[in-house]
Amino acid sequence: EASAKVIDGKSVANRIKVEIRAELSRMKEAIGVTPGLAVILVGDRKDSATYVRNKKKACDSVGIISLEANLSEDSTEQEVLNYISDFNNDPSVHGILVLLPLPKHMNEQNILNAVRIEKDVDGFHPLNIGCLAMGGREPLFVPCTPKGCIELLHRYGFPIKGKKAVVIGRSNIVGMPVALLLQREDATVSIVHSRTNNTKEITRQADIIISAVGKPNMVRGSWIKPGAVIIDVGINSVEDSNSPQGYRLVGDVCFEEASKVASAVTPVPGGVGPMTIAMLLKNTLISARSTILNNTYG
Ligand code: NDP
């Protein structure tokens, strides 16, 4: 018998979008500014194209203008840098997103470093990550997926302060920044990864588990302390002959087992995924607002 609450990321994300839309229309009325978000997509990866399409739809739904640069797989690094430079200098663009992974012949670091930190709505610029890690510093932008995880905990009223949190995974885009955020929220944080020996002994102590690994159903019921809150970032496609596409998406956490042990758990899809896009819109709004404040009063 499942007893855990299902954390509905989709409906929280929709509520956030309504809030953003309201604030954007106030902004437009008051000072005539509409935020713009530019996306640079190199090559034709299917998952990236889907993400861009969803992002565009989300921008349209709240009133953010979306711009796109689609470059072919064999473009040069300089061509990408030229686009970044144009977007950096374009006052109608408030956020710039470079979709990763880039083709192998490009230097990801050079490219990410070229994005103006004031427009780094992904929050991946080393200065933003550095500020996230330092006490008493505020990053201009917090990475979207980690921010979405914390926002879900907040909106559901799950306390973080003083709790024992375990993050599974240490990637630059999810695991590491989400661990930093939990620590800023006064959790006691452990990070486990592929070289950790006793992962489930560690996760079993957690009041909050955030999993960002990319392995279907890795986190079993026996890994979870009764009453824990589980945020499942993983998106994995597994074969499913019952579905028309022949596959379906699952998380890192075995949802059925977790539902019997945890007090709350995010589904996949419909958990963290929609929150990521909502936080991207939020970061674009924050960027537009700060440009305006700086121009007007700075
Ligand atoms: P990465 O592959 O970059 O990182 C995976 C991490 O998991 C690594 O730190 C790795 O350890 C660790 N890991 C691998 N195997 C194990 C194991 N057996 N036990 C414990 N840790 C392990 O992935 P990302 O962080 O980019 O993404 C993680 C998942 O989240 C993916 O499924 C991705 O699709 C999904 N995702 C979802 C988003 C959303 O919006 N919901 C956004 C971004 C990602 P090590 O460092 O030692 O290699």
UniProtKB/TrEMBL annotation:
Q: Name one GO molecular function term.
A: methenyltetrahydrofolate cyclohydrolase activity
Domain Tetrahydrofolate dehydrogenase/cyclohydrolase catalytic, by residue range, is 7-122
Q: Which reaction does it catalyse?
A: (6R)-5,10-methylene-5,6,7,8-tetrahydrofolate + NADP(+) = (6R)-5,10-methenyltetrahydrofolate + NADPH
Q: Kindly state which keywords UniProt assigns to this record, in alphabetical order.
A: Hydrolase, Multifunctional enzyme, NADP, One-carbon metabolism, Oxidoreductase, Photorespiration
Pathway(s) per entry:
One-carbon metabolism; tetrahydrofolate interconversion
* All residue ranges annotated as the Tetrahydrofolate dehydrogenase/cyclohydrolase NAD(P)-binding domain in the record: 143-289
> Which residue stretches, if any, does this entry annotate as coiled coil?
none
Q: Which GO terms describe its biological process?
A: photorespiration; tetrahydrofolate interconversion
GO cellular-component term (any): cytosol
Give the protein family.
Belongs to the tetrahydrofolate dehydrogenase/cyclohydrolase family.
Assembly with partners or alone: Homodimer.
Q: What is this protein for, i.e. what is its function?
A: Catalyzes the oxidation of 5,10-methylenetetrahydrofolate to 5,10-methenyltetrahydrofolate and then the hydrolysis of 5,10-methenyltetrahydrofolate to 10-formyltetrahydrofolate.
Q: What is this protein called?
A: Methenyltetrahydrofolate cyclohydrolase
Q: Which organism is it from?
A: Lupinus luteus
* Portion of the parent chain present: 85 to 382 of 406
